[in-house]
Amino acid sequence: MKISRMSFDVLKLPAQNKALHCYLLMSVWILLLIVGVYYKFLEPSRRLPEPASTTELFQSLTLDVKTKRIFKICNFPDEMGEGDEGSLRSNKWLLKGVMILIRHGDRGPLQHVKKISSINCGTEESDILNSYKTYLHNLTVFGKLSWVGPGPFHGFPILPAHTRHCNLGQLTMKGVSQLLKLGSLLKRNYKYVWPKLEKLNDTEILVYSTRYRRTFQSALAFLYGFIPKDSLSKLGIYESQSMSFCFKDCGCPVTDKLAKFVRDSISYQLKAHPAVALLTQQTGKALFSSGAEQGSLAGDPHAVRDALLTYVCHGSGLPCENSNNCVRRQNVAGVFAYTDWVNHQKWRNTFWKRMCLLKSYGLMRHLVQQMLHVVSDNGPYFTLYSGHDHTVEQLTTALGISNDPLLLRYAARVAFEVYQDNREPMSGAKAIYFRVLANGKDVTRQVAFCKNIATIGKVNLCKIEDIVRFLHDDYFTGVNATNYKDACAYKYD
Ligand SMILES: *[C@@H]1O[C@H](CO)[C@@H](O)[C@H](O)[C@H]1NC(C)=O
Ligand SMILES: *[C@@H]1O[C@H](CO)[C@@H](O)[C@H](O)[C@H]1NC(C)=O
Ligand SMILES: *[C@@H]1O[C@H](CO)[C@@H](O)[C@H](O)[C@H]1NC(C)=O
User: Fold this and answer.
1) Tens digit of pLDDT for each residue in 247-305?
2) What is the SS3 assignment for 157?
3) Lower CB density within 10 Å: C or N end of the chain?
4) For residue 27, what pLDDT is reported?
């Protein structure tokens, strides 16, 4: 069975050994943190004095080792660097096409938070940002910045409404900068190994976005950096009605049940950690601005984490509920450590794994179809999916890629590269391979169903046969079914 095979792989493979090692370290660290939190609450008289001013706190956050890594989630544009995409430079291997899933860039909080008008969600000016703005102004009529291309997004705003202001759930200008940077970094990587990229016309490119401004605007900014400008202005952008990009395989009732099992196990874990629950509640009370949100969301560590990012990623001081309850460094560190740990536990949860397999089935099928189109030499050669953290999380889990908090950061990416093996001439369709990269790191070896891996230097390639076989024969064995319909009708009691 898939699930047990994978847990053995964790012990076998060197890449995953590292992940396990990291996990163990993290567990110890979380334990220490939790002990620290208990200590803080149980012995208030021994608490260290806190800095009085909240704005000082941002400086200390950037200096603190525990909180420093949290900034990686923000993915600041000037810290984004080149990944290993397109790193296979050999005339024996031909890059034929690429599929990329992105998470949208930096956005405002999903809930009303305190002091939001004083937070600066803007970005530094850069050459690419300026040329992008000029391009968009040129593209549109009478300065009305809405999409003029064909398709369901016609008339959608193409840039965030404000340059500095953080709007609820909306992409920020910092988010635009991230995607521009990402697109141009990837273009630089692919330029030499994939000359076709600079000639791709609009019919050779396929783009899907969910119907949110933040994903649509992220897709545009990414494409501006990545594809020829002429093609961008003619491009049709398609809508995915689901966050999972399920295409023809949506409607799977059992996933609701599985999601409930996962939620139950998460709230059970929180009950088992009362100190964390208390810390979360206090933090949430200081963060959320309306009474309703303070009541319903303040106790949810994931909602609190998301709201914290609004402050942490925009260099803002942390808010206070009153003079006795301010959000402190240890609140941030505690909430992040705990939610990372919960995500890691979730990743080992069988129900979660099954849910991800079922939710990602449509996208997985679509990806394989795109791979086959690329191979058949009639395109499209580049497919972009502009989605959410859920999309990335579910697809990588379904593939068996180990959980990494950075997979869920703003402007995260998962790339699939399709290669033809030219080592022996006329080797045909059997000689097609693909490679998976998560945030620029080759994770092909982690993919659960890849049995035929070719290794060239640091590059790993998986036979396309493996993913085709997985999809056709083995996909539902872990859920006790042979097809999607039966798997979705499975009764758990
Ligand atoms: C904008 O349009 C003008 C006039 O059509 C052109 O000269 C200029 O190069 C365009 N700029 C961009 C960035 O496309
Ligand atoms: C796009 O490029 C392909 C290959 O170069 C060509 O066959 C096709 O006609 C082009 N399509 C358009 C609309 O220009
Ligand atoms: C699959 O079915 C077998 C036999 O019907 C049963 O013993 C097993 O527990 C089922 N597995 C799951 C994951 O439901």
Assistant:
1) 999 999 999 999 999 999 999 999 999 999 999 999 999 999 877 666 788 899 999 99
2) strand
3) C
4) 56
Q: What is residue 314's three-state secondary structure?
A: coil
Domain spans in the chain, listed from the N-terminal domain onward:
5-46, 65-252+353-488
Q: How many helices (H) and strands (E) does the chain have?
A: 18, 11
Per-residue pLDDT tens for 150-164? 889 988 999 999 999
Phi and psi at 145, nearest 5°, equal -80, 70
Distance CA 370, CA 384 (A): 11
Q: Which ligand is nearest to the CA of 1?
A: 3
Nearest bound ligand to the CA of residue 490: 3
Task: Give the C-alpha separation, 382 to 360, whole Å.
Answer: 20
The Cα–Cα gap between 67 and 33 comes to: 12
Percentage of the chain beyond pLDDT 90 is 70
Q: What is the mean pLDDT of the chain?
A: 87
**309 dihedral zone (left: phi>0; alpha: psi -120 to 50; beta):** alpha
d(CA 198, CA 183): 13
Q: For a substitution probing ligand 1, which of 132, 134, 135 has the most ligand atoms within 8 Å of its CB? A: 134
Count CB atoms within 10 A of the CB of residue 430. 9
Q: Could you say which architecture CATH assigns to the domain 65-252+353-488?
A: 3-Layer(aba) Sandwich (3.40)
Cβ of 204 below 6 Å from ligand 2: yes
Q: From CA 55, how far away is CA 444, in angstroms rounded?
A: 43
The pLDDT-based confidence of 446 (bands split at 50, 70, 90) is very high
Å from CA of 203 to ligand 2 middle: 7
Residue 123 near residue 129 (C-beta atoms within 8 A)? yes
What 3-state DSSP class applies to 103? strand
Distance CA 270, CA 106 (A): 28
Q: Are strands 325-326 and 93-103 parallel, antiparallel or unpaired?
A: unpaired
Pocket test for ligand 2, best of 202, 204, 233, 376 (most atoms within 8 A of CB): 204
